[in-house]
Amino acid sequence: MQSDRIKFQSYKDKVITAQEAALFFKDKMTVGTSGFTKAGDSKAVLPAFAERAKFENIAITLITGASLGQTTDTDLANNNALYKRMPFQSDAALRKKINDGEILYIDQHLSETAEMLENKHLPKIDIAVIEATYIDENGNIIPTTSVGNSPTFAHLADKIIIEINTSIPLGFKGIHDVYISENYPNRQILNVTASNDRIGQDYIAIDSKKVVGIVFTEILDSPAQPTEIDVKTAAIAGHLLGFLENEITAGRLTNSLMPLQAGIGKVANAVMSGFAKSSFENLVMYSEVLQDSTFELIDSGKMNFASASSITVSENCYKKILANFDFYKDKMLLRPQTISNSAEVIRRLGVIAINTAIEFDIYGNVNSTHIAGTKMMNGIGGSGDFARNAYLSIFVTQSSSKEGNAVSHVLPMVSHVDHTEHDVDVLITEQGVADLRGLAPRERAKVIIENCVHPEYKEELSDYFNRSKLRGGHTPHLLEEAFKFHLRFLETGSMKKML
Amino acid sequence: MQSDRIKFQSYKDKVITAQEAALFFKDKMTVGTSGFTKAGDSKAVLPAFAERAKFENIAITLITGASLGQTTDTDLANNNALYKRMPFQSDAALRKKINDGEILYIDQHLSETAEMLENKHLPKIDIAVIEATYIDENGNIIPTTSVGNSPTFAHLADKIIIEINTSIPLGFKGIHDVYISENYPNRQILNVTASNDRIGQDYIAIDSKKVVGIVFTEILDSPAQPTEIDVKTAAIAGHLLGFLENEITAGRLTNSLMPLQAGIGKVANAVMSGFAKSSFENLVMYSEVLQDSTFELIDSGKMNFASASSITVSENCYKKILANFDFYKDKMLLRPQTISNSAEVIRRLGVIAINTAIEFDIYGNVNSTHIAGTKMMNGIGGSGDFARNAYLSIFVTQSSSKEGNAVSHVLPMVSHVDHTEHDVDVLITEQGVADLRGLAPRERAKVIIENCVHPEYKEELSDYFNRSKLRGGHTPHLLEEAFKFHLRFLETGSMKKML
Lengths: 499, 499
What we know:
homodimer; alpha/beta; Glutaconate Coenzyme A-transferase; 2 domains; 7-stranded parallel beta sheet; 5-stranded mixed beta sheet
């Protein structure tokens, strides 16, 4: 079994336990690990390190592709094993420690981290831990369900630990396209002109002298939670499909649309599932994550090809992919997140970007990360990479949430800005669509309040806008009231005006 | 004279007056005109239209490259000739009408407008007015001191009016590199891998059937105001040079740095002038505007090449360029703003972006456009195009301004966000440098307050930060106090705490 997975002779004596591997970690080290939205993460070495940190005063800076699966971030956080974490997370325990100021967190565009590492704008990587399907005859890594930042971690790290996951079939070789840009000033063109273009190798090149240990696991990726499509998400999906159909009618799109990107989560997934019942065809995806909906679209014959940086699917979908791997293999590609999220490629392909907002304001600024301006939820992820450079930048969210619609997701002013008014084309809630293209701020406010706001908040937002206009300005506001919805929520648990 | 300038036979009878040309404008039309930061703008037809609008109820949507020179925007605004204006302006009268809600304004990334026009996300261009050095044998336009969005206006307009400016020497042919991307889905790679790479033609291709009139002028571009380097701007320039020298010492840069971009204005110009006395050499520029400092750097032998979308210089500098045109000609290139400001090219070249902030906050968010969150100053211009995709994204501003330091430019929270915390690497005031790379928000706040804030505001900002931390959060804030500096300014004319 192990010889199947380690085809490079001089690695054969490198096999160690996860506990032994975790001993390479020293206090204050910077560690880069594979893992992107729970896919292809370290399932043995990082947990072993978390366990070790229970008994030792040791903490690292941990850089990943994106979020980790299992309970890894929870355990690392609870055992005080993290000094700093970047560029993304979605773990409740870690989130709490970040918001309590106990763990430092850098929330980055997912395309940026490897750039900053390669440019030495971030600390050097001491150790890279990379999950592998197997190690080929030349000592290189065949990745698993994600590529993420692993090529850069392997490139820059002093030491490399490889985690071979035997639950991933050997046939995974070939679905990856690994490319690292030359350092400046020798940076070259990213020669991707279609979602299925290949520009690199199907392995991560490794300097074999850096490999200090190989660990075996057979733990599967944490499954994505299957998402129920409820009335609201179905309405949002319906509005989006209607909007795109109108674009076809207007002659701006064909029924193959443009390459699609969809964020993570139930709204985005519902939207994408909606495409399966649409009249669109020959769709392609240029995104960061392949979700259940991607494979539904491939199954239904609607989608021809999907490029991303990871496969993050439910348990059933994962089984389906493995059972029909030959069918899917030539219809997908996993890339480093510098390429899946590259401004250059996203603009060139003309991606339709569909991302989820936490809240947006009446002028079209979007908050994707912070609750009430202060508490981090997950992070910006790739939404900025796509929204800025997209052919169409669409943000979706429900107009209200919580018991009794206590929270409005449309506000006078967002409490944190991740996507500025300059980067947002279309806003969609279950109430309707605000098409902001070609609109000045005062025009946007009218359309947003009219089409996207929950009826219970419409009057107050209109009133805010009208009174703001009396004071003038290109973007009218009453700064002393701009956060009144948030402040009420902090005080009373509801954004609603007390009667 | 005129036959020198119109080398295409069938245009010879198209010469009309500016007043006749202005008659092609109809109410509610969308007009696209040349002009980028006062360079290469329409100096006859738009003013004639402004004059006509004095006596007629007529208003257009005016799309330019960027700001216009002369008193054109003033006259258009005062004569109610504008319904909507985009994507940039810097005119006092127009600004007032925008802030009074009388003229709609869309403040866009300068790279975006032509994209949105070509994708039909903005209304069709009815008339294009383009300043030309001359018309060549095939009826194509040799532009003047800017390229801006003119190629797209000419491409999309129903009718084209050409304004031949006889004050521009015929030798200007050759300094332009005009390229329009194919429409989707045939978009190709932008094959610019160095500041001096050419990918297009040295003329704007014209469908001769669209040309309805040719107007002659000899009015020079409005000169840039020469900027005095004062104590503060000199200190900012000094800090920036010191920062870059440290980057060389750290092995991240060579003394040729990387291609430079600098925003408009006295701070940016002072900073660039500082390079002339530095030890840097073989510099290149990949920017949007060539300013006086660019030519100083070329004169001093420090700069080898400069690419931009316009030449906007003082009267003396302009004379110098014309008198020594052969010397400068092979050291510069003017491109469409889709290319000068292209995310793809900026990232590929690794530009060091130096832009001016109106204000920034203790977490590194930058406001480039709005006074007290509501009143538009000029617009975001190209700062977002460069900051997001730069190798290093640097923002400069003075720490305080107005009599008695009544205004702090470092705030608890910015009143409008143009550049999010995700896109800002380094902040510099005359007080010092905050290097934010690799820092979490709470670390950034410390460094910014310590290094960038004016002494008179340090204590209150520290106090705000410390009290915010008690309430927790990844990005600690007291939402009810976040705009207290701005509100005080609105009430009292000063951000200072009353004693």
